[in-house]
């Protein structure tokens, strides 16, 4: 098991957002966190990464309490891509190399440069290496920050709606890359998503959040029309097209 979350709760000053959240994520798992706007998905990711401090409960990475890990140690183990990115004046290569920061003492080693090149390659960004971030489209920038998180070589990848500003081809590409990366590198990913079809196709675990509590969690068996309707308040059917399950609102 890479990630274990026990009894996690969080509240903003004016409102309680998460209550009694318990789940685990194993090596090779791609867990999709699903739920309506405001359900608490981003807040949950931020609690896992200690961007926010949970008011109750504990987050363990390989049985180590993350509350006791230093920021640097946490950055080696958790790669986090937030929903909104701050613009920075840097080349794509330097932006991805920044993912190696927790490992670099004085200057980047050959290994750091190699890992950076590999991360760029996995997102098809080699041709962009010397371009400046402010010269890229929103979707291209999104891919750069995902490459940076991969360069961190974390055990746990946290992605907050990584496909939201991508075109159709790149949505599938990025979801596939995440699935392949976690499987090939013995790591795991926790990803907030709105596209149920993308989630069903590429994730292997699902966590349905409703009003700050876990409504259902597990493998594909929890993605039933009944559960989806209860969470999203939209009746749906699930049909197979060329052996691929597709969620259709009816
Ligand atoms: N900084 C904040 N202060 C107070 N309340 C907040 C803050 N950030 C979020 N909230 C509230 O907490 C709840 C959960 O927000 P969160 O962003 O986690 O939802 P989400 O499921 O990620 O939504 P979305 O799908 O729209 O991104 C919402 O009701 C939101 O209004």
What does this structure look like?
The protein is of the alpha/beta class. It has one domain: P-loop containing nucleotide triphosphate hydrolases (Rossmann fold, 3-Layer(aba) Sandwich). The chain is built from 8 helices and 12 strands. It has helices at 41-48, 71-77, 92-97, 110-122, 138-151, 168-184, 196-202, 225-232, and strands at 3-12, 15-25, 30-34, 56-61, 64-65, 78-81, 156-160, 188-192, 205-210, 213-218, 236-241, 244-249. The chain has a 6-stranded mixed β-sheet, with helices on both faces. Strand 7, helix 6 (168-184) and strand 8 (188-192) form a beta-alpha-beta unit. Helix 4 packs across helix 5. The longest helix has 17 residues, at 168-184. It is globular, with a radius of gyration of 18 Å. It starts with a strand and ends with a strand. 38% of the residues are buried. It binds adenosine-5'-triphosphate. Residues 12, 15, 17, 35, 37-43 line the site of adenosine-5'-triphosphate.
Describe this protein with a few key phrases.
four-stranded antiparallel β-sheet, 12 strands, 250 residues, alpha/beta, Rossmann fold
Q: Quick one: biggest sheet?
A: 6 strands, mixed
User: Mean of residue pLDDT?
Assistant: 93
Task: Return residue spans where pLDDT drops below 50 for at least 5 consecutive residues.
Answer: none
The total strand number stands at 12
Given helix and strand content, the structural type is alpha/beta
> Percent of residues in helical segments?
25-40%
Ions and ligands: adenosine-5'-triphosphate
Radius of gyration: 18 Å
């Amino acid at each position: 098991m890479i990630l274990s979350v026990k009894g996690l709760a969080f509240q903003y000053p004016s409102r309680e957002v998460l209550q009694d959240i318990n789940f685990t994520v194993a090596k090779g798992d791609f867990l999709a966190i699903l739920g309506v706007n405001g359900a608490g998905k981003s807040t949950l990711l931020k609690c896992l990464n200690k961007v926010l401090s949970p008011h109750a409960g504990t987050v363990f990475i390989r049985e180590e309490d993350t509350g006791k890990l230093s920021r640097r140690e946490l950055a080696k183990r958790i790669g986090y891509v937030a929903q909104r990115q701050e613009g920075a004046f840097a080349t794509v290569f330097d932006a991805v190399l920044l993912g190696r920061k927790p490992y670099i003492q004085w200057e980047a080693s050959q290994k750091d440069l190699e890992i950076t090149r590999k991360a760029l390659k996995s997102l098809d960004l080699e041709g962009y290496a010397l371009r400046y971030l402010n010269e890229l489209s929103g979707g291209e920038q999104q891919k750069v920050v995902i490459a940076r998180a991969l360069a961190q070589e974390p055990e746990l990848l946290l992605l907050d709606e990584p496909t939201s500003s991508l075109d159709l081809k790149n949505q599938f590409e990025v979801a596939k890359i995440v699935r392949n990366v976690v499987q090939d590198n013995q790591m795991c990913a926790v990803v907030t998503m709105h596209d149920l079809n993308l989630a069903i196709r590429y994730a292997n675990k699902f966590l349905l959040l409703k009003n700050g509590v876990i409504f259902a969690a597990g493998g594909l068996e929890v993605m039933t029309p009944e559960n989806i309707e209860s969470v999203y308040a939209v009746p749906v059917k699930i049909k197979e097209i060329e052996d691929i399950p597709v969620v259709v609102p009816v």
